[in-house]
Design brief:
D-Maltodextrin-Binding Protein, domain 2, six-stranded mixed sheet, five-stranded mixed sheet, 13 helices, about 40% helix
Length: about 300
């Protein structure tokens, strides 16, 4: 009698593609993906591609990424996305890395031309809400062009930034460098550009946190990967928790990367991660998100966003 041995065929787990951001502030969220002992395990489940925030949104929309740390605008612009719960890039007061840089002597209510930062659509949308809704300004908006492959952490030349505009939105590590420089020289001169912290401005006018970015997910990609959604969520939440436990190590890793002039000293990096950035997507952040989407839709900056849908 011939015995027949049945082999159970199981579908291999497909790696999930992560679109990550190249700036300092997401570093705590990525701790486990970048460090032992979890790095090797996670490398079997995920592939990571680093890019600018706006590029993360494009990668998700085009199906080139499955999970992306995307600007808040992506959720309204690309229906069908879900939000990975608990993790966020937000600020409950001043953030120091999202600025409106204004010419000296220009009244914010009389801005005529504002240059937007191509790296972050959310910051640009927030800036338009703040200028128009809260200050009554009606400037022309233009998108700044930048060289392909430019170092996202590099300092900017303020004269070039404001060459054709009264003000410009500047985000990320270049903004943090500029704020550090201004603070270092105790900037009070009426002849030098003025920096407005847009997260603080949002907080003053709304009483709510500024929510810059969160992990957005294509739910169908999670299903196709063969992984359980709860396990994916657990990987990202655990990575954030471990990152928050290792802020001193993150500071030490990033200090050499931000050491070229104008340098950001280690103590400023540590203060930024501990005090300026908030990483927990709590009820206050949800309220801030809903307020942002409501204002953006009313002003026709974004399409009406769907209700917040969590993975």
């Amino acid at each position: 009698m011939q015995l027949i041995h049945w082999r159970v065929q199981t579908s291999p787990t497909r790696k999930l593609r992560i679109a990550a951001i190249q700036y300092l502030n997401p570093a705590p969220l990525m701790w486990d993906f970048d460090h032992d002992p979890e790095r090797e395990r996670l490398a079997e489940q995920y592939t990571i591609h680093s890019m600018l925030p706006a590029q993360c949104a494009d990668a998700l929309a085009a199906g080139r990424a499955d999970i992306g740390l995307t600007p808040a605008t992506a959720y309204a612009a690309h229906p069908g996305l879900a939000i990975l719960p608990e993790c966020v890039i937000a600020s409950r007061d001043a953030v120091r890395s999202i600025l409106l840089v204004m010419r000296a002597g220009v009244d914010i209510r009389e801005l005529r031309r504002v240059t937007l930062d191509p790296a972050s659509r959310s910051s640009n949308a927030y800036a338009q809400i703040i200028l128009q809704r809260f200050h009554g300004a009606r400037p022309e908006y233009v998108l700044r062009s930048g060289p392909s492959g430019a170092n996202p952490a590099a300092a900017v030349n303020v004269d070039d930034l404001l060459r054709d505009s009264d003000a410009a939105v500047l985000i990320g590590d270049p903004a943090l460098r500029l704020m550090q420089e201004c603070e270092a020289i105790h900037l009070v001169s009426s002849t030098r550009p003025h920096c407005i912290d847009l997260a603080l401005e949002w907080r003053v006018w709304t009483g709510l946190p500024w929510v810059s970015a969160f992990w957005a997910v294509r739910p169908e990609a999670i299903s196709a990967s063969g992984r359980q959604a709860r396990d994916v969520v657990s990987d990202f939440v655990r990575s954030r928790d471990h990152g928050l436990q290792h802020l001193s190590e993150i500071t030490a890793e990033w200090a050499p990367r931000l050491a070229d002039a104008p340098a950001i000293p280690p103590e400023a990096i540590a203060a930024y991660l501990r005090q300026n950035i908030h990483y927990i997507l709590d009820d206050a952040c949800r309220a801030g998100l809903e307020c942002f989407y409501r204002y953006a839709a009313e002003m026709k900056i974004l399409p009406e966003a769907p209700r917040l849908r969590f993975m």
